[in-house]
Amino acid sequence: MDLPPPILPVRSLEFYYNDGNVVFQVSNVLYRLHKSVLAARLDLFGGMFILSNGQRQPEEGRDDNHAVQIEDGVAVREDFEALIKHIYGQWTAPPYPVPFLLSVLKLSTRRGSEDGRERAIHHLRDHGTNFSNLLKFHASIKYKVPLWTRPAFDMLVSTDWKLGDLSLLAGYDVSLEIIDLVIKTRDLISRERRRLATLPPPVSHDINCGRNQREKCSEAWMAAWILSIGRKVIHVDPLFQLQPYQAADAVRGLVVPGMSDHC
């Protein structure tokens, strides 16, 4: 049985510069770029053509037949082309698509482009950018942006985010571990909310509160807690749910009919 002919690489229509002096190949696409531009904009490219003995590698990247191979697992074509656009200053007017900005952030982090990281992070913070909290949490961990981690995680576990929203992430490299962490944390919070809604903190009875009165105080405290605090803790609308930062004021303002003034 004859084997199919090999797929020959093709030159990029946009990023194959005739005056370039280094050729890269991603999948079956060739890119001819400028070493000086890459070395100036990417820290990790500055020494990639130097051998361990200090001499330059004569072959790699010399021409189409000796292209520097970029594995798909490291950089898919879309990521690589987004990074090239950043390196060569091909930025259009904002807002920018989230996939483009994430590609710049991804490869800028891996290839040592600090200005690429800063620019991508800056534009991903724009209010006009549709950058979901799940993607933001994922990017904060994978691409080392700690200022996003806590705010994004808090929003994910406290707002009305549904598993059905995962369909919006098709095509993004969001790890299952991150999704699993968010889902499990939301489940823990939900169970704790249900517990708090029906099990108030114990009453600290005053010494002047008699034995018979203590039982009445406890019953009054239980009823007031469930009807006031508990209902807000598990309210079906997240906008009206009692949030942790509101809890202290809500308890201090709680009126408990039938409870002794001493307790």
From TrEMBL:
It comes from the Eukaryota. PROSITE patterns: BTB. InterPro entries: BTB/POZ_dom, SKP1/BTB/POZ_sf. Residues 20-88 form the BTB domain. This is BTB domain-containing protein. It comes from Thelephora terrestris.
